[in-house]
Amino acid sequence: MRPKSVDNVNARFLNDFAEMIYLRLDNSGRILEANNFAKATLQPNPVGLNFSEIFVAFTQTIDPLQAAQNEMTHVPASVNTCADLPRTFFFSFFKVTEGVDVYGEASGTEVLTLQKTLIETNNELSNMTRQLQKNNSELQKLNDIKNQFLGMAAHDLRNPIGAIIAYSDFVMDEAKSLTDEQKEFLSIIKNSSNYMLKLLDDLLDFSKIEAGKLGLDLSRCDYVNFVKRVVKLNSAIAAKKHIQIILNVHEVIPELDFDSIKIEQVLNNILSNALKYSLRNTTVVVNMFMSGDFVTVEVRDQGVGIPKDKIDLIFQPFTRVSKQGTEGERSTGLGLAIVRRIVLGHRGRIWVESSEGEGSTFYFTLPVVAKE
Q: What residues does the Histidine kinase domain cover (predicted)?
């Protein structure tokens, strides 16, 4: 039975609800109207195009006007559609006043195939999600075991390393008959032991942080005097390389709530890196200033700088700017990773600006908030 023209059917049904292509053509085959389903299905929007432009291939050459005059129905055609929609439609052609009405129904077989494919894909995604959750759980367990092992190993090794350092000091102080070569050997033993002890301390801190045990003990402190004290302690170390540390406080800084031990660890690490990678007879400048609701500490050195390919990795564990400092100082590669976690734990930020050969500037902020 011939469908009625769009003029005689419910236009709202064709536009809003029908899963059927409807096109109104003029006698030359140009598309004058298209329902919403046709616009959503055919690529590109068919209005204004010639009827022959929207199809990949008909099973036979089709002249819409001739097909309408012959009242051809159920003519299969492959349609340029979105990737997820059926491509085969069956078309019927009907002559109307000064034009042609075209109706296209999707292939039932392709619809069923598409539904089956979607169900299978959804099942695969569900299975992959479950497997991913299982893998994440197993990885978390392995990570917990790794952190536990690092913590236990670092803790158990600290005592014998400490004993090596103590006996090295004792021998160097008491054995006056040692040759210069023997003293040099003892010095190497002591320096290597100190490096190992620092590495063990960093491993302990890192394993605790990784296990979610940062444990901040916040208390109200005079932040300016705190920074002055830490800078003074590092100035003695800087003097050995004839490096001057200058502290500038640019405005009134309020008291802050922070963990003084942890923030001292942050500032010591940043300053020690500045000294480690700076040349002799240079200057390290520390600036303190307000940044909205935060206090910013800036540490600017005149050192070797950070390679461009390392800047994005500098706060990742076991990343080193270089193997050694300007006078052979070594780094564990964990310090800045620990520092970053501490600053983030205080709800602050930390970042670096640097150019290789031109020095580095580290910034970290702490919020101006009440303890509670």
A: 152-370
pLDDT digits (tens, 9 = 90+) for 121-150: 888 888 888 888 888 888 877 777 766 666
360 closest CA partner among 296, 314, 295, 316? 314
Q: Which two tokens mark 191?
A: 């320096």
pLDDT at 81 over 80: no
* 3-class secondary structure, 159: helix
CA distance 337 to 315: 5
Superfamily (CATH) of domain 219-367: Histidine kinase-like ATPase, C-terminal domain (3.30.565.10)
List, in sequence order, every residue forming a beta bridge with 285; answer none if it has no partner.
246, 300
Tokens encoding 89: 């439609």
φ/ψ (deg, to 5) at 118: -65, -40
What 3-state DSSP class applies to 341?
Answer: helix
Q: What's the CA gap between 264 and 261, in Å, rounded? A: 5
**How confident is the model over 320-337, as a mean pLDDT?**
70
- In this structure, whether the domain defined by 112-210 belongs to CATH 1.10.287 is answered with yes
Q: Which residues, 6 or more positions from 105, have their beta carbon under 8 angstroms from its beta carbon?
A: 20, 21, 89, 90
Nearest to 255 by CA among 94, 111, 371: 371
d(CA 321, CA 311): 9
Token pair for residue 93?
């052609």
Instruction: Reply yes or no on whether the pLDDT at 60 is more than 50.
Output: yes
SS3 state at 267: helix
Tell me whether strands 99-106 and 20-25 are parallel, antiparallel or unpaired.
antiparallel
- Hey, where are the domains in the chain? 6-106, 112-210, 219-367
How much is the pLDDT for 372? 47
What pLDDT score was predicted for residue 2?
A: 47
Handedness of CA 205, 207, 210, 211 (dihedral sign): negative
Give me the phi and psi of 310, to 5 degrees please: -105, -15
CATH topology of domain 6-106: Beta-Lactamase (3.30.450)
Residue type, 331: S
Single out the residue of 212, 304, 226 nearest to residue 261, CA to CA: 226
Supply the DSSP string of 286-336, one letter for each residue: EEEEEETTEEEEEEE--S----TTTGGGTTSTT--SSSB-TTS-B--S-HH
